Amino acid sequence: MKYALIDIGGGMRDAFGAGVTDYLLDENISIKCCIGVSAGASNLANYISGQRGRGLRFYDTYPNRKEYMGFWQLIRHGSFLNMKYIYEDISFPGKEDPFDIASYTASDQDLTLVATEALSGKPVYFPKSSLAPFEMRAVEASGTIPVLCRPTIIDDIPYFDGGVSDPIPYRKAFDMGAERIIVVITKRRDDFRNPGKDRKAVFILSRKYPECAKALELRAATYNRQLRDVIELEKEGKALLIAPDDTFGVTTTKHRREDVRKLYRHGYEKAGLIKDFIKG
């Protein structure tokens, strides 16, 4: 039976997903096919590199630094999240908390990173090999939030968050040969997305990236449809949905260390369902 693990991200809320992947590392559960969206791409990269605890530090430690995120970064660099600080200044070889690219590359697990091409509004699926020493732009692109961040440029093409165009890429998992899927989301399973939340961002984005703005305008409908599909697949025994019962006040950008840690521990506990799902 071929399983796929999908982590759809959710900004700071994906401390929940970091708890899930740390549980999998502790239990020596190796899922070969992984698909990451937004912050989920980072979580799964750390899972494949075997760096237990690294993901949590990017939710409960580094975000409290002024260099990491905030309106000062938006004014100074044009992005609420300082992607260079996150993916280069902290993560490059020889830096404070380097991503273990050697272990990542040597692993027999595969990773697909989902981003959205800003010009077309279409999803792009970067392969595992996109990450290399001193090269983390694919995982950066996957988590580049429209309007809050400038697009990430790869080979002269601008990219935004994968959640804009393919928020729950379960079809991609089946296309890649998965027979059963494990989907990690960071809101309650009954918390469907309100399209009104994206209205202002759609308006701002439409000035420069009209096709991406169209995808963003449809994001709520896409997410809600995909979530309902996964719930139906769960009833058929083909999927397992790992979702928090409570997000403890953590949002995409709002974070208090104690709340983030609660959410991380909650993800760790919820991940126990995966062991039974795989045995079944």
Nearest-integer average pLDDT = 95
Largest sheet: 8 strands, mixed
Rg, Å, rounded: 17 Å
Strand tally is: 8
What gap, in angstroms, lies between the N and C termini? 10 Å
Question: What helical percentage do the residues reach?
Answer: 40-55%
Q: How would you describe this protein?
A:
This protein starts with a strand and ends with a helix. The mean pLDDT is 95. It has helices at residues 15-26, 39-49, 54-60, 71-77, 83-89, 101-106, 137-142, 170-175, 199-206, 210-217, 219-235, 257-270, 272-279, and strands at residues 3-7, 33-37, 110-117, 123-126, 152-154, 157-161, 180-184, 239-242. By secondary structure, it is α/β, with parallel strands linked by helices. It is 42% helix and 14% strand.
Summarize the structure.
The chain is α/β, with parallel strands linked by helices and about 280 residues long.
Topology:
Blueprint: E1 3-7, H1 15-26, E2 33-37, H2 39-49, H3 54-60, H4 71-77, H5 83-89, H6 101-106, E3 110-117, E4 123-126, H7 137-142, E5 152-154, E6 157-161, H8 170-175, E7 180-184, H9 199-206, H10 210-217, H11 219-235, E8 239-242, H12 257-270, H13 272-279
Parallel strand pairs: 1-2, 1-7, 2-3, 7-8
Antiparallel strand pairs: 3-4, 3-6, 5-6
Helix pairs in contact: 1-2, 1-12, 9-10
Keywords:
280 residues, single chain, 8-stranded mixed β-sheet, 14% strand, alpha/beta
